[in-house]
Amino acid sequence: MKKLLDIKSDTGSLSNGVLQVNTSVGDVISANEMIMGSIQNLSATSQEVAASSEMAMSISDETMQALDDMYSLLGDISTISGNMEKVAKN
User: What is the DSSP track for 14-35?
Assistant: First the structure.
């Protein structure tokens, strides 16, 4: 009879241990899911930042081209102005 009580006690202890392990594994799985969600959010944010940076570079390139065009036009205006001055003196 004592042996049966010991087996029952050991089985109860083992059952409690398995339950604790099961709870711990569940906690780890929950934590991993939260970590994965955070990684996905970071990834999405990184993609948005990269897209914004690319857009900013494109706008900067367009702005530089517009400034180059304006500089060229100012040179043309200066040449025309110089020619007009020569004609006015004659």
Answer: HHHHHHHHHHHHHHHHHHHHHH
CA distance 83 to 65: 27
Rounded CA-CA distance 76/64 in Å is 18
Q: How many CB atoms are closer than 10 A to CB 80?
A: 10
Separation of alpha carbons 50 and 21, rounded Å: 43
The pLDDT of residue 65: 96
CA–CA dist 42, 87 (Å, integer): 67
Q: What's the CA gap between 50 and 9, in Å, rounded?
A: 61
Quote the pLDDT of residue 5.
Answer: 79
Blockwise average pLDDT, block size 10, the chain, 90 residues: 81 90 94 95 94 94 96 95 88
Helix, strand, or coil here: 12?
A: helix
